[in-house]
Structure formats: C-alpha cells, structure tokens
Amino acid sequence: MVSVIKPITALLMSAGIVLAGNGLEGVLLPLRGSIEGFSELEIGLVGSAYYTGLMFGCLLCPRIIGRVGHIRAFAVFTAVATMSPLLEAMWPTPWVWWVFRGLTGVCVAGIMNAVESWLTSVATNENRGEVMSTYTIINFGSITIGQQLINVSDPQGFQLFSLVAILFSLAAVPLALTLTPHPPAPRQPQLRIRQLYRVSPAAVAGCLGAGLANGAFWALAPVYAKNSGVPPGSIALFVSLVVIGGALAQWPIGRISDRLDRRVVLVALCICSAAAGFAFFMVPAQAVSVKLGLAAMFGVGALPIYWVSFAHANDLVTRDEAVNVSSSLLLLFAMAAIFGPIMAALLMARIGPDALFLHTALVHALIAAAVIYRMTRRAPLPPEERMAYKTLPKSNTPAGFEREAGEDGKRIPPAR
Question: What does the pLDDT look like over 366-376, one tens digit per residue?
Fold first, then answer.
C-alpha cells in the first residue's frame, strides 16, 4: 500500500488542501450572505454561479492543462482561486460573489481535472482500486474537515475568508515541489445528450434529478440550518453528516447494485431521500437531534443517486464509449445543478426555509417515477454483463473517468 501511494503523496496532499478550502467556502458563503441580508434567491444564485463555473471549467481546463502541463496549470488555478475569497470578503455584495464564486468553480474544475487525470494515468490495473479508494477517502475527509473549520472564527469577520485563501494558495506547494513527471493531458469532454438518452433514459433522469436536488442542497443547506433552529455551532455538523452518510453508503450501495437491477437500487435511494426530505418539512424547529439524524439519512439516499446512475449508464456501453458517456453525465449533472439552487430559493422565499427539502423531496419522487416507468420498458441487464461498481469521490471530473470505464461489454439497443 505504501509503495503504491508514495509516488502520488504530494498530489494527494495538494488535492486534500484544495478540497478543505472549498468545503469551508461552501459553508461560509451562504452563512455570511444570510448575515449580510442577501435574499434566498441571491444566495441560490451564488451556488448556481459555482456550478456554472464548474461546467465551463470541465470543458475548457483540459486545454490549459494540455498546453502548460499539470503542475503549472495547478499553480495557475490555485493562484486565481486564492483571489476569490479575499475579494468576496472585501465586497460582500451579490453580484461580486456571483462573479468570483463562478471563477472559483472554473478553478476547482481545473484543479480536479489535473489531479484526477494524473491519478488515472499512474494507476495500473493491479493498484487502481487502492489508488482511487485512497483518493476517495481523502476527498470526503478533506471536505468534511473544511466544513468544520467554519467554527474556527465568526463568519461575520474577515478571518474565515482569509483561511480559505490560505488553503488554496498552500495547496500548490506540495505539487510544485514534486519530482514526479506529469502525465499526458486529459481528454476534452463532449456533451452528447442524444447519445446519453439513447444509452439510458434512467441514467439521464437520475443525473438530472441529482443535480437539481444536490445543487440546491449544497448552495442553501447552511441557510436552512441557520433559519430553522439548528444552533450556530452545529450548522457545519449538519452539512457534514450528509457527506458522511453519502460516503458510508458508497460501498454497501455499490455491492447491492452489482447484484440487483441498478434501477431498483436507484428507486430505493430516491424513496429514502424523498422520505427524509418530507420529514424535514414536517419536523418541529426545536427537534435539532432529529434533523441531524435526517441529514445523515438524506446523505445515504441522495448522494449515491449520481454514482448509481453513472454505473448504470456505463453498464450499457463499450469501453471506447464510456469516457464520453461518463463525461456527458457529469456535465449534465452540472447543468441541472445550476438551476437547482434557483428553484429551491424561490420556494424558500415563498414558503420558508423548510421548502429546501420540499424541493429535494419532489425532485427525488419524480426521479423514482421516471425510473419505474423505464423499468416497464426495458428488461434488466444480466449481472454478468454489468461493470463492477466503482468507488467515486464527490468531486469526480471527466478526467477521472478515462480509465474507470470497466470491461468491454455489449451495446444495448437504443431505448424505445
């Protein structure tokens, strides 16, 4: 294990520091925006700006990496990302935050493309599982640690914004000092909606729904927690429990979906997360411990939806097609996540903070209905023709799919 991880230690350290900074900023901005008097829609647009940047970054950054190399590109992306939280602290106004949160999304996409293309390049068939499992643990762990850093200082001050900037800038140091030669540039992803729908309408429904629900949650969950009775010291815990629930669910959900029709698993996950959402909508404001438990339940149900949809789509294509299909699924998720925070924010403005989970519950119920309908139109794929479920990090980019496609398989006829 040590011999496998040692050559990529600097890369993993840099990735972990960036993810911690991004995790902290993801909690800090909604809280500070609420303190500054931003409306729910304005805060939702900040979240939408991040996913807009993430989508364009996935499309554009591979060219930059190919032109200057992984290490130089990583240094550029972290330097530009460092600027954003400092300017957000200097000018806490919605339009400034929209611009620079979008810029952060572009930079994070570039950083993660560089990291994940490097990892997939150095991993072999023998050690790929160890490499990606280690990266996934670091990914979830770093995000959780970053979220907990919100308790280090008062969100009303400058200090937490400075801490985000410090983490972004510090992330370049380990990778800049590495002597390991960087790999070839990642492929340029392409968005092919028609091909995606022909391969698997159920996977398209799952990814669209996951983007609408999860994008809204990450953008507005701190606002919900602040305005619905969760103590200030427990807001980060509330958000982190969702991450932890999703991380712990990956392995058992993956094992189950390898044995059953993945669409059945997808429906079960949607029912679980919809039930959690409706429970949030009905639970009394003072029942904080119940809300923390529901947060973990929501994470167990909601976060694996994208991963199971990803695996289901890749069951239906050959290795040559898998990279484009997987990249398109991620870009489709990002497109949906742009609109999710806006839709949820409009509901919250009319109904109250609990409407965030009314939004997620309705979205998950619609996914379940769409997938159940697809199950009546196509027979399940035999287990022996499915690819093995892959453990994926929360920040997976198109570069992370290049060697994660699985074994060659038969093409399923176009959906009818």
Answer: 999 999 998 88
User: Model pTM?
Assistant: 0.86
Q: How do residues 339-375 score in pLDDT, each as one tens digit?
A: 999 999 999 999 999 999 999 999 999 999 999 998 8
H or E segment and range at residue 347: helix 319-351
The stretches of 352-399 forming alpha helices (DSSP H) are: 355-375
Closest CA to 318 of 406, 404, 197, 402: 406
Residue 395 lies in a domain: yes
Q: Which two structure tokens, joined as six digits, stand for 110?
A: 């570039």
Residues of the domain holding 349: 2-401
Evaluate whether residue 410 is within a structural domain.
no
Rg (C-alpha) for the chain, rounded Å, is: 20
Number of domains in the chain: 1
Number of Cβ atoms within 10 Å of the Cβ of 24: 25
Please check whether residue 337 lies inside any domain of the structure. Answer: yes
Residue 390's CATH number: 1.20.1250.20
Integer Cα distance of 354 and 351 in angstroms: 8
DSSP code, position 95: H
Q: Provide, for the chain, the percentages of residues in helix, strand and coil under a 3-state DSSP scheme, each rounded to the nearest 5.
A: 80, 0, 20
d(CA 324, CA 304): 21
pLDDT at residue number 59: 84
Other Cβ atoms closer than 10 A to 241: 22
**Single-letter amino acid code for the residue at 182:** H
Question: What are the distances in angstroms from CA 220 to CA 32, 217, 350?
Answer: 12, 5, 15
Closest CA to 223 of 22, 42, 100, 88: 42
Q: Is residue 171 part of a domain?
A: yes
Contact present, 186 and 62 (Cβ < 8 Å): yes
